[in-house]
Write a structure and sequence with these properties.
The chain is α+β, with helices and mostly antiparallel strands. The chain folds into two domains: 1-62; 78-90 and 152-393, Cysteine proteinases (Cathepsin B, Chain A, Alpha-Beta Complex). Helices cover 36% and strands 13% of the residues. The chain has nine helices and eleven strands. Strands 1, 2, 6, 7, 8, 9 and 10 form a seven-stranded mixed beta sheet that branches. A two-stranded antiparallel ribbon has the order 3-4. The chain has a two-stranded antiparallel sheet with strand order 5-11. Helix 5 (200-217) crosses helix 6. Residues 33-43 and 113-133 have low confidence and may be disordered.
């Protein structure tokens, strides 16, 4: 009996000792892993600081008008997060379809007004304006500014201080206004973070549709970039183009809802990776019309201003660089020798300031980049404005 007790006691002691050994080994492994991670983080931070020194030296040498710092975006390789791939685009073809849709919408509105008086039936989709008839209001006051040269930027005299918060608009939005900021009108949704996926095109598409929806319905929505990434077939984490998103969630016509739509963020939260498109019920988060600003690829400053006033926030692109990635404040005025369609990053334009000679740009690299996620960028810097698009969102009461 004593022998059995001794054996049992020894067995328990052995088990406890083994458990402690395994626990101690696991703890040591965890400590080693944490130490390695700390060393790696220190190394990364040291590398970022060295990179920052080089960028600051370049700013000083070229007398640029902006400042840089360590930003959230610098955690990633630039190629990971600048994922815009401009395709061969038929600007005039897209705009012809946009005008067709807006003519139909204008006709529908007029017929709907008659319905209230004489109860005639709903209009047929084929009922369009004749080519020589009056343009719908969305196009009626569009002026051709394509031949007017952009303002010549002054030689940089070093850092230019920029406002850190939205300033109140003092006049109506016109191309001749000295400045405009859609944030001050409450028509811009919060800045988001795309992470290490090259889905900037999806975030830009969502941002523009959200703003257009705000204008059309006076309602703020938070759309799912993940659903756009999964379902629109407009791109992937390797890059894409936003026009395909506007088409994917487009209405069949101003009279008929589309088969596909955007969904809310809480329905399909962002995961930052390519996944299969899941089933979802269509919503009213659709586009009624969409088109390019101008027909040349890169519209003039006045054409972009006119579109901002007419439609609200615009989808656009820029050529992002390490300087762009590290931007903190001031007017970004890096000037590179680029081809006419050399861009790699989709962004959203929400305003301008002629005193700064700059557009106001909304990014998708979190509020830890730039000025709370925004940048003031010189009108002629790094091809900003290439492929600029406008959107008209579906009204909740229409298309049923």
């Amino acid at each position: 009996m004593k022998t059995k007790k001794i054996i049992a006691t020894f067995s328990i002691f052995f088990v406890l000792l083994s458990g402690y050994y395994i626990y101690a080994q696991a703890t040591d492994n965890m400590k080693d892993e944490l130490n390695k991670q700390k060393d790696s983080n220190k190394k990364s931070l040291a590398e970022l600081k060295e990179k920052l020194k080089a960028l600051e030296a370049e700013i000083k040498e070229k007398n640029y008008a902006f400042k840089v710092g360590i930003t959230e975006a610098m955690k990633f390789e630039l190629g990971q997060i600048a994922g815009t791939k401009p395709p061969k685009v038929s600007f005039s073809g897209t705009n012809k379809e946009a005008e067709r849709r807006l003519r139909m919408e204008s006709k529908r509105r007029k017929v709907k007004m008659k319905v209230k008086k004489d109860t005639i039936g709903n209009p047929e989709e084929e009922e369009l304006f004749a080519e020589d008839e009056e343009l719908p209001e969305e196009f009626a006051d569009i002026i051709d500014y394509s031949d007017i040269p952009d303002p010549v930027p002054p030689d940089s005299e070093g850092y230019i201080d920029t406002p850190t918060t939205p300033e109140k608009n003092t006049n109506k939005c016109t191309v001749d206004a000295a400045k405009w900021d859609w944030r001050s009108e409450g028509k811009v949704t919060p800045v988001k973070m795309q992470g290490g996926c090259g889905s900037c095109w999806a975030f830009t598409a969502a941002a523009v549709i959200e703003s257009a929806y705000l204008i059309a319905n006076n309602k703020t929505v938070d759309l799912s970039e993940q659903q756009i990434l999964n379902c629109s077939k407009a791109g992937s984490c390797g890059g894409g183009w936003y026009e395909g998103v506007f088409s994917y969630v487009g209405m069949k016509s101003p009279y008929v809802a589309g088969k596909n739509s955007s969904v809310l963020e809480n329905f399909d939260p962002y995961k930052g990776k390519d996944l299969k498109c899941g089933a979802y019920s269509p919503t009213t988060y659709q586009t009624m019309a969409w088109g390019y600003v101008g027909t040349t690829g890169k519209p003039s400053v006045k054409e972009i201003k006119q579109a901002l006033c007419k439609y609200g926030a615009l989808a656009s692109t820029v050529y992002a660089t390490p300087q762009f990635q590290a931007y903190r404040s001031g007017v970004f005025n890096e000037k590179l020798k680029l081809g006419p369609n050399d861009v790699n990053h989709a962004i959203t334009l929400v305003g301008w300031d002629d005193k700064l000679n700059a557009f106001l740009l909304k990014n998708s690299w979190s509020k830890g980049w730039g000025q709370d996620g925004y940048m003031w960028i010189n009108y002629s810097s790094n091809n900003v404005g290439y492929g600029t698009m406008w959107v008209v969102a579906r009204k909740e009461s229409e298309g049923k």
